[in-house]
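Before the break, one more example. Copy the sequence into your notebook; we will annotate it together after we see the structure.
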Amino acid sequence: MQELKVLSPTAILGYGFPVDSFLAGLERNPDVIAVDGGSTDPGPYYLGSGNSFTDRTAVKRDLELMLQAGVKRKIPVIVGTAGGSGAESHLNWCLDIVKEIAAERELSFSMAVIHAQIDTDYLVAQVKAGRVKVLEPGKPLTVEEVKLSTNVVGQMGLEPIVKALDMGVDVIITGRAYDPTVFAALAVKNGLDKGLALHMGKILECASIAATPGSGSDCMLGYLRPDHFLLEPLNPSRKCTTTSVAAHTLYEKTNPYILPGPGGHLDLQATKFEQYSENMVKVSGSKYVPAEQYTIKLEGAKLIGYRTVSIAGARDPIFIGQIEHIIAGVRERVADNFRSLNVKYHLFFHVYGKGGVMGELEPETELNPLEIGIVIEAVADNQELANTICSFARSTMLHYGYPNRIATAGNLAFPYSPSDFKAGAVYQFNVHHLIEVEDPCELFKIEIVSVGGYTNA
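Here is what the structure looks like once it is written out:
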């Protein structure tokens, strides 16, 4: 095969894309329409709770355009990490949307559903057998942590998706998948270079973020050829440059030359970026290096408590100048007040304007802003206790006395009433490990489903 074209509509399913850009991509007759549906970037809540971080209406809008185009033009449609995190509840959430679209638009197609949730009993057995390894800089996984997890998923590689394509399906919806795989799978199935395919997938997963001006809500087309690939943004207001593409290659990587993934890594030491046309870039030289032992990354989250937050602002320069002292005093007052109850809680103060983003890593330690925003956060074993701790901390800081205070009516301004927000369950990533497998497909059950009973025009 001399060329394979991959259309990436958007950085994450539900982030949207201009219809004109999508139509421009279809005019180029792509061989596959692929999109990444999730990420761990929004934090552990979504994996732990089983909820999607993307909006259902937005996801349906994107999927509707993709499915109609793919089914009617006989272009395979592949969605990775369905529902944002790829656990069973996320996968089912996305499948409901797919079936709803099919019914409303009278579409019929064969669909492969690739499951990625890991059974707790199975994982416990693998931990005991020594097949679960540390992913640095983490700690060894214990049986206790596995049992505390509400959801654990495996990040599938290319092989389950290639296997599904070999079954001749029209649509593939996967649980948790390594981001580049949905873009690279058809190319690898057709014998094109795995290293180039995965590198192109690494860029296409974020759609036009690799263009300038960049956008995660616009389309990109990749042209994979035997010894290189080309990238073309489909909006005439954007272009790819060697700088924008090379910079995106460094995105989300700890090593500029090595990109690890399921079963091996990309070696980018010989990668070359060339300006192919005014808006397209040519990339060559990327190589795939297989590992001696095939491993799959595991991701899991556990419930650690319940959260209440209060948001306030302050503009008094005397108060701002003593904020660290005041926070220490409020912490001490809260601890003293509830010491006799022997309760466990965590109390955080995020001071925006003075280290609210960087925390202890903030280099501008002498910064004295005109105003600050304060987020008071309490996490406890139950919602009622979190409410109590946050409320007490908020009222204590509101009326806290500090040296040279002028106004005694209150130190804080609250933008909302009620001032405290019950944020609910709090989750923490507790599984971030590697599991050794003999078969890259052994963790990922493939289910074939016939959708709709209509005659597609």
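DSSP finds 13 helices and 19 strands in the chain. The chain has a mean pLDDT of 96. Try to locate both features in your own notes.
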